[in-house]
Design brief:
Layout lengths: L1 E10 L5 E10 L2 E8 L12 E4 L5 H20 L1
Amino acid sequence: MIRAFVDRVETTERGDLLAVLLIRLAEGDYLQWLCPLEWLPPNTREGDWLRVEFTPDAEAQAEMRTDIESLLQELQEE
């Protein structure tokens, strides 16, 4: 699990809201991650702490594998 600090919320030129998340890598070393505010929990604001977890997406992986295999087969038939 990773903890991210919502440093600020910015508005892009198109009017989209982006949260600037800071993730501590080491003492004094932070990764800055721009994330659409709509991807975050409702009412997220500057100063909030979030937990970030990455989990495998077996369904998406299976779909991509099927798409690639179909494309390869199509290319081999030509």
